[in-house]
Each structure stands twice: as C-alpha cells, then as structure tokens.
Here is the input.
Amino acid sequence: MAALLVSSGMTNNYFSLDDILASQETIPCTFNVKVATMGYLDQSTSDVDINMGTKLDLPFWLAKYLHKGSRGIVSVDTPKTYKEGYRHIFTADPNVVDLYRLGPYFYLFGEKLLSLQLPDTDDIANVLLKTFQGRFRNIMDGSQNALHSDLASQMEKLDVQERQLFAAGQQGLHEFQKWESRESEKLSTSAMVSNHRKRKRIGYIANAT
Amino acid sequence: MLAEKALDLVRELHRSLGGTLSPYNEDKIRQVLEEMQTLYDQNKDGAQFAAEGQTDLISAIQVRHAGIQRNKRCLLAYLYTRLEQIRKMRWEFGSVLPPDVKYNMCEQEVQWFNQYNRLLANYMRSVGESGGLDLTQDMKPPKTLYVLVRCIADHGEFETQDGNTVLFKKNSQHYLLRSECEHLIRQGVLEHIIQ
Here is the structure.
C-alpha cells in the first residue's frame, strides 16, 4: 500500500507523472514587468513582447517560478474553482460536485496552490480538508460494498486521488472475498500478463477487420 | 506554449501504463531536446544583451529558463517511469519479454534490461547455501508440494526434473511439482485447479 501511494504521485516526487500533470493546471497571472521577445506565449496578440499588466493563464510550474523571488515577474490570482463562489458550493454539499471535471487533480493542485501565498490560502486549505472529509464516507461505502456491480457511475465524479483510494478499497474487498472462499492460495496469471494479452487480442481483431 | 511537446510525452506514457510499454518516442524526444537547445541559445544571446544594459531581457531569460527545467523534468520522468515499468515486467513476465514489448524498447533500454537480468540472476545464485534461491518463486505461501494444473494454451513438450516429459496440450491436465510450474501459471500457459 505504501508503495502504491509513493509510485502514484501522492508524494511530491520529481519523477511522478501525476505530479507533472497536476502542475500543468493553469493559474491566472498578471505580469508586473515587461517581458521582451516572449510575446508568443500570449496567443491573443501578435506583439513581440509581453507588456506590463498583461493578464495570462500560466501553468502552475511557470507561475510558481516567476512568482517567487524579490522581483516577482508575475502576480498570481486564485483560480476560479478555488475562489469563494466555488468554496461555498463545496461547503454546502461536497458530495454532488464533479471533482473530475473541475480538476482532475483537484486536491493535488489545491495543495500546490497553498505554496503560492495567496491571500486566501487558509480558506483554500480548509475547504480542501472539509471537502475530502465530506466525500470520504461515500467513497469508502462505495468501494467496500460494490462487489460485482458497475462502478463507472460511482467513479465518474471522483478526482484522481480519490479514484486511487477507491481502487485500493476495491482491491481489499476482492482479496477478502477470495480469502473467505479459500481461493487466496490459488496461483493465478499475473495481472500484467493478462492485461497484455487482452490488448494484443484487441489489436489483432482491429488488424483483421 | 512552452514545454508542450514534453507534456505530450508524459501524457502518452501516463495513458499506456497497465500491461504494456508504449513505443519509445524517439522523434518527440528529439523535438523536445531541440526546443531546449533553442531556448538555451536564445538565453545565451539574451544574457549578453542584458549585460550590455537591456534589462527588460532578464525576465525573458527567466521564463525560458523555467521552460528548460520543465522540459528536463518531463524527459527524465519519461525515461525513469519507463525503466520502472520494464523492471516491473521482469518480475511479471520472467526473463524473456514478449516480442512486441521488446520491439517498443530503445537500444539503451534493452541493454539496461539485460544488465538487470544478469544482476538479478547473479544475486539469486549467491544467496542461500546450495545453488541459490529463486526469488521469483513462491509469490504466495505454498501449501502443497504438487499442484493440479490444466493447460490453457498449447505449449509443446516439457521436461520435468525427474526426467519425464509431459506434453502440454490445450485442456490436458497434469499433476506437477509446484516449483516447476509456478512460472508457467503466472505467464498464463497453465491454470491452477483447486479441488
């Protein structure tokens, strides 16, 4: 389980693909200084330079880099989904929100935002925690009790980390089920091999038709 | 946008992690490296002009530098995750990978795989007193010495430790030493039957 968490990017790992994808989410930024020759970043104009006061949505990794330091090339603003309006929605009923559509890395990206020293950092941190607390019960219920049913509808509103949690719960449930029916000693084909075989078969059919 | 191509690489790999290894995207990696080189060259020129007094170039240098670092991170993550995947496959598929997986690896990855194989084999030979210990054996605690298995696919003849040969024909059943057939079960040639 610990290995699962580490490899799937819940920690801040330099090599983690999830972490890279999460840091690509954009943040509204305003340029405090003129940036010469980089006008091509702003696709709405054909200027050669980025002028002072230009507003642009920059990915987190760039915004973070330009925001830090004494000069502060850009100043950052809270992204829409973490602003007060959305925070009210989350506190009202966290269970109805489709975090995958808003996120997909809602918590991971939110956690990164905290490092930017936005004026409402404390509120964001609070809302992240409250949202997770509110939704956790449903996630646990769902993953521990659905044995053979269709899970797509239950999973579609979960953000990436919640999905990993859900999958972990499911795995536990299945292993317990196997143990109960005395199947845990049965040797089986490794999951990777059977996945690989399935894909190959699909590819074979696709080629044949 | 900066570092867009490198992100494509990461996305592509992220989608394909499961039972396969996506083809090594040499073309895209070259493009990313070219982008990094261009950014670097521009920064070198920019630094010269900035030293001569054009201070508004300094911020541009920082933007490009962030781009270079981002590209580097994406490339390294791409290579590292692939290696991790290949290492995992050594334990799942055994020492010989399926040809289509091998086909998707680049030359250096094949080399790495061979070296990893050798290291693992040497290590397994060195532990334990007599003839080493096979670490890929007994992934689950064994309960019996012999197991009943059924063939899922034709696999030709197989010689057991005591010198007999058995023919693995589809749907035939055999009673074999567990240690001999565990690998074949994991590779999906045989199926373990529990009475």
Summary: The two ends of chain A are 42 Å apart (CA to CA). The longest strand of chain A covers residues 26-31.
